[in-house]
Every structure is written in structure tokens, then in C-alpha cells.
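Q: what does this look like with sulfopyruvate bound?
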Amino acid sequence: MKTVYTCFTTDVVHDGHLNIIAEAKKIPQARLVVGVLSDKAKIRSDKFPTCSFEERFEMIKNTKGVDEAIEQKEVHYDEVFKTIKPDYVIHGDNWKEYPNCVIRDNVLENIKKYGGKLIEVPYTYNAGVAKVDSILKEKLAMPEYRRKRLRRLLELCPIVKAIEAHSGLSGLIAEKTIVERNGELDQFDAMWVSSLCDSTMKGKPDIELVDMSSRMRTLDEILDVTTKPIILDGDTGGQAVHFAYNVRTLERMGISAVIIEDKIGLKRNSLFGTEVEQQQDSIEAFCDKIKAGKEALRTEDFMIIARIESLILEQGMEDALSRAFAYAKAGADGIMIHSRQKSPNEIFEFCDKFREKEKTVPIVVVPTSYNSVTEDDLISHGINIVIYANHLIRSAFPAMKNTAIEILKNHRAKEVDANIMPFNEIIKLIDEL
Ligand code: SPV
Ligand code: MG
């Protein structure tokens, strides 16, 4: 008996999968083993699953023509080659494109070591397959599915990576960018809707001038075209009573978390530090705000994360730590600790001391100033979420400004063409329904 192997990442078996099974069945005297990709591997290389691994496994196991289903833990098939050594691997030819070609290259390299064979089947894309894709995408975007995904990511990922989004278009970049790194695939897990970037986008200062209604319009734009979970920068949260109302609205919209900072009065951006006047809230009042938010919640999904400004305002490590413990006790679902130092040392000291006593409450960091720190360093200090808080807008601004300068200088647009997106790409960038 020969063994034919394929790996399915899907939540729904459609014509494409049935076609692969049918092709596999044409091989005489062979049994078909199907790998079901683990959740951990799926979220690095594909969309988030819309059902549990167990449900996906049962579905594949019970599909006609499948002789055996196994869990494939990693994106790459190395383990499969060690244990099963399939005579054939069968796959749709759509994996020839970047970034999935990385998986294909690895399969080709390994299979030829022992004389196995790769069979590629033309990718099936018909109205039925398109419909399944679109239904799954819609399901992923629904508030009740999207909202709880941040908590699930915290269980699945060594560190959850969020990138800022300030519009539908930047949301699409956060949603769709997948890269190959050291042979592995990677993508962002979540989006951060920053007060700085949302305000800057509107040409306004980051002082809570762009009000919550406007912030919600930005959120809605992003929610409309993406599926990844969203963490909102909620500034100070405003008055506790208003915060409670806003939490309820955000929860209904499908936002996964809001982060509020322990400042009062006219809020200025933290990266100003002590260069401008900024006032920290009392521990008691801020705990009351956290509690008011928690009481307003209707689900277990939504997270209220407390942001500590003690290091920004040079109030010392002890102040930061005592606030962190108090906020966690008041019910905060996570602690964000912020710093504007070039070195991550004070962040690491805080995290190490916090983790001595508090093992589970997630820690969030924003390494804008201490940007040489790596995600591995952050993981080793018990940090759970990293936010790249302003990088898309900071890269867009100089690019746009440069284009404006060049057109003005040349009295025509030809000179900028080489540095901008080709016209036929921009008109096809956005998928139509
Ligand atoms: C933001 O992105 O708006 C933040 C993070 O609050 S920071 O700008 O570093 O204060
Ligand atoms: Mg902010």
C-alpha cells in the first residue's frame, strides 16, 4: 500500500478539496492521509479558524475518500516526512505563489531525499469556492467572532503582534501582509487604533480633541474591510460614567479591547513625557473607572487594559508597580506599561518585578522609543502583546510629502512614477464583492 498525503487548513470542505481527494484516489493501491493544520500554525500562514480544531478534524476525518486524518502541528511538513514518509504529496498548484511557495519549496526539498513525488492539481476556483471564501470572511468579521479572538490569540501566540491602522486601507495592510522569515510564514495578529494616528490623520493634535464619535467612525471603516481583532487606544477613557457607555458600544461593535491611560486633565501624547504639563490620575479614581467599565460589559470577551504612565511622568518604578497591582486587583484584564527611554531596561525591570507576583495578567508594551528591542526579548520578560503604534502613518507621510515636492519641482508627474504604485495596481487593489 502506498501513502498519499495532503494538508488541509480549511474550515469548510469545498470543491477544491474534493477535487484533490478525487485526484489522490486515482492512484492505485494507495491510502490517503490528510493533515489538519493546527490552530497555532494556521494563524501564522492563513486566516484565523472560524471553528475549533476538533471540529475541523472531525470534518476532515469524516470526508468521503479520507482514510486517515492526523494533526499537522507546523506549517512545514518536516514532521510528516519523518513519521509517515508519504510516497506522494498532493496539493493545489496555487501554492506556487509567494508566500506559500516557501512551504512548497520545503516539501520539494524533503520529498526528493527519499524518492517521494509531488503531484500538483490545478487550483479549483469556481462560484462555490468563492462563496465559501466570502462566507468564512464574513463570519470572521462578525462582532461576536472577532471580539473574543484577542483572548484566544493570547493563548495561542508567544506574543501577540499588533500594528496600527487608521483607515480602511491601512487596515487592509495589517490584514493581508504575510511574509516569509527564516523559512517560516508570519503576519500581524491584531490592529491598534491609535489616538495619535487617528488624530494625525485628521490633521488634529493628540489631545482627545477627536472625540469618541469620530474615533468610532474610524473603527467602523476598519471593521468594515478587515477581520483581525482591534485594540482601541481609549486615551484617558474620559469620565467614568462616559467610559462605561463607550465600553458597551465598543463591545457591541466587536472591538476586542480598549486601553485607557491613568491621566487626567488635558491629555498630551506620552512621547512628550515631562516636556509638557501632564497629570496622572489617583489610583483610587482610576480603579473606579476600570470597575465602571467592567460592570458595563455583557460578555467575557472584551478586555479593559490599564495603561500606566508613571515611567513616562518620571514617578518611579515603585509607583508604576503599585499602580499595576492595584489596577489588576480592580479587574483590569491587562496592564500596559509605557516608556520613552531609548533602552528597554526600565520596561524589563517593571515586567520582571510584576511577573514575580502576578503570573497571568497580560502585559502590553509599545516599543516606539526603545525600538531595537526584539520580540524574543519581550517574550523572555513575560510580555504578551507588542504594539507597533504609529509606523504605518509615519511611513506614509514622508512618502506623500516627497511626491508633492517632486511634482511641484518638475511641473509634471513623470519623475515620481518610479516611486509610486502603478496605476493598474491601485485600481485592482481593492477586492470587489
Ligand atoms: C498612541 O499611539 O496614540 C499612543 C501610544 O497612545 S504613544 O503615542 O506612544 O503614546
Ligand atoms: Mg494615544
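Residues 194-196, 206, 233, 269-271, 366, 368, 389-390 surround sulfopyruvate (ligand 1) (CB under 6 Å). The chain has a mean pLDDT of 96.
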